[in-house]
TrEMBL record:
<feature type="disulfide bond">
    <location>
        <begin position="70"/>
        <end position="75"/>
    </location>
</feature>
<feature type="disulfide bond">
    <location>
        <begin position="34"/>
        <end position="113"/>
    </location>
</feature>
<keyword id="KW-0732">Signal</keyword>
<feature type="binding site">
    <location>
        <position position="76"/>
    </location>
    <ligand>
        <name>Ca(2+) 1</name>
    </ligand>
</feature>
<feature type="site" description="Transition state stabilizer">
    <location>
        <position position="64"/>
    </location>
</feature>
<comment type="similarity">
    <text>Belongs to the peroxidase family. Classical plant (class III) peroxidase subfamily.</text>
</comment>
<feature type="binding site">
    <location>
        <position position="159"/>
    </location>
    <ligand>
        <name>substrate</name>
    </ligand>
</feature>
<keyword id="KW-0325">Glycoprotein</keyword>
<dbReference type="GO" id="GO:0020037">
    <property type="term" value="F:heme binding"/>
</dbReference>
<dbReference type="GO" id="GO:0140825">
    <property type="term" value="F:lactoperoxidase activity"/>
</dbReference>
<keyword id="KW-0376">Hydrogen peroxide</keyword>
<keyword id="KW-1015">Disulfide bond</keyword>
<keyword id="KW-0106">Calcium</keyword>
<keyword id="KW-0560">Oxidoreductase</keyword>
<feature type="binding site">
    <location>
        <position position="72"/>
    </location>
    <ligand>
        <name>Ca(2+) 1</name>
    </ligand>
</feature>
<feature type="binding site">
    <location>
        <position position="69"/>
    </location>
    <ligand>
        <name>Ca(2+) 1</name>
    </ligand>
</feature>
<keyword id="KW-0479">Metal-binding</keyword>
Amino acid sequence: MKVLAAVTLALGLILINFSTCYGDLQVGFYKGKCRNEVDVEAIVRGAVTARFNRDHSAVAALLRLCFHDCFVNGCDASILIDGPNSEKKASPNKSVRGYDIIDEAKAAVERECPGVVSCADIISLATRDAVALSVGWRWKYDVETGRRDGLVPGIVDLPSSRITVSESIQVFADKGLTVTDMVMLLGGGHSVGFTHCPFIMDRLYNFNNTNMPDPNMSPFLLSTLRSRCPPTGARDNQEVNLDQNTFSAFVVDQSYYQQAMMRRAILRVDQELAFHPATRDLVASTARGSGFPTQFGAAMNNLGRVGVLTGNQGQVRNRCNVVNPITSNSTPAVANKASTSATTTAATNNTSTNAPTATTNNASTSAPSTAAANNANTSPMLGDINPMA
Ligand code: HEM
């Protein structure tokens, strides 16, 4: 018994260690790095709290922004850079919001601790704080920090709204994320926020070109959504809650899984997760159990490690929307992620009609074709139907 206890304790310590330090990232990276012991995380928390108190949908804004940043060029805040070829302007990011929350947090941090805290870390911290605010601080996960900011925008290469579970598993695996990470990130992410009618019209009226609705949608949900998104005259900017449990539409919780079990998930991939052999057991157990907060926090940290720049790579931007002039202090290459093609990537970025997809950006060269579209690609992507344009 004592041996078992000792082994359990040792394993526990290892796990804690793993969860607090990954490569050059670590929880509390900024401790002692600012004058007067300024608490950087408290400053970010203050800015996010002020926004959240005015607008609870800030949590959805930040979660999506964080995901769209990390899946393009890694978690390097490249999504925040302004410019004609910026990621912001790319079609899949047209309805991404929350940039101003990061700008506000960054400005507050810069006032107390100039030139030290990366925008990439502010995205991670702010997202964590918004999640914690959404659950009234009943739980929060620790966030690793120590990222640096990227120097160029990336090619926006995001999963299509019509992606299948199998394809999605591959896309997440290409980023080093497991099936569990994927289920937790999709479930937590889509437990808040909105989608727009164009993203679900096929499920309502013409699923897989059958002229019939998705048979996996509950009849009650179908009728509710059809009245919100009529076959003709539906407004592209009509919003539909991703979590149909109105009591928790702004709370990051396991209600997504419960809804999916009742065939009340909104997006196609969300519903399919409840039936796919690789994911259904996890969806069912998460719907029933109490493990979601821990697993979601772990998945967010795994997401936060995708393609990060650390050490002397990249730079710490002064303002999140503008890259600092390159000095000897910043490494011009996009370091370990975009390989040698940083310049090419910038040049072939979002406006190119024939930009290579998986070869010049961070997406693995084996990314499935469904996900391998750039900003001008014609595959159905998150932004193909562009409700906010
Ligand atoms: C296969 C992967 C994913 C697909 C296909 C997908 C697809 C979508 C689509 C189509 C929308 C609606 C966009 C609109 O109507 O403007 C959406 C919204 C959203 N997604 Fe995802 N998503 C994926 C993964 C994720 C992940 C991993 C997260 C976060 C960790 C996330 C967080 C969100 C949030 C919070 C919203 C609502 C945004 C808002 O209210 O402004 N998504 N997603």
